[in-house]
Specification:
Strands 4-1-3-2-5 form a five-stranded mixed β-sheet, sandwiched between helices. The chain has a single domain, classed as Alpha-Beta Plaits, CATH 3.30.70.100. The chain is α+β, with helices and mostly antiparallel strands and 145 residues long. Strand 2 and strand 3 form a beta hairpin. Bound molecules: flavin mononucleotide (FMN).
């Protein structure tokens, strides 16, 4: 049984190319021991990561990732579980810095990350607005039905 998680998150503060490399090289070392593979992309202060591996190991890793103070606003984009074929069988954690790459082939990926991030920001604003006041009113209304 394999599990795969895709998520995006935002840097808490600016990170150098080397700091990002450091995260992925440490990740690759840990992941090799846990049979985890994946990719970590960074672009304009946003991480996009895919992790895949045995369910228990992925759950444990993702719990750590959620607590990591180097990033915030983590939004899960997808979780798959089952008889999956690995997308990244050869990479324990491939790092791709989209701010420095010149690869033409990666241009569509950049556009997708921008679009996902913009959408996430809209959803976050809406959720915050609801949390601030409207939830209470909405719930109040429904109790009168
Ligand atoms: C964006 C991001 C991606 C990460 N990806 C991984 C990963 O794939 N594997 C990993 O072991 N740690 C990863 N980490 C680090 C974990 O959050 C955590 O620091 C680490 O798993 C703790 O390992 P340790 O208990 O061996 O110190 C990532 C951190 C960040 C900020």
């Amino acid at each position: 049984m394999l599990k795969r998680i895709h998520y995006i998150s935002s840097f808490v503060k600016d990170m150098s190319v080397n700091e990002i490399k450091e995260i992925s090289s440490q990740a690759a070392k840990n992941n090799a021991e846990k049979d985890i593979t994946g990719v970590l992309m960074a672009k304009g202060g946003v991480f996009f990561q895919i992790i895949e591996g045995p369910e228990e190991n992925i759950d444990r890793l993702f719990t750590n990732i959620l607590k990591d103070i180097r990033h915030e606003k983590i939004i899960t984009l997808g979780i798959q579980i089952g008889d999956l074929k690995r997308l990244f069988p050869n990479w324990h954690m491939k790092e791709i810095n989209l701010d420095t790459t010149t690869s033409e082939r990666l241009q569509p990926v950049k556009a997708i990350i921008d679009a996902v991030h913009a959408q996430a920001a809209i959803i976050e604003n809406l959720t915050e607005a609801l949390a601030a006041s409207a939830w209470a009113e909405l719930l109040d209304l429904t109790t009168k039905d």
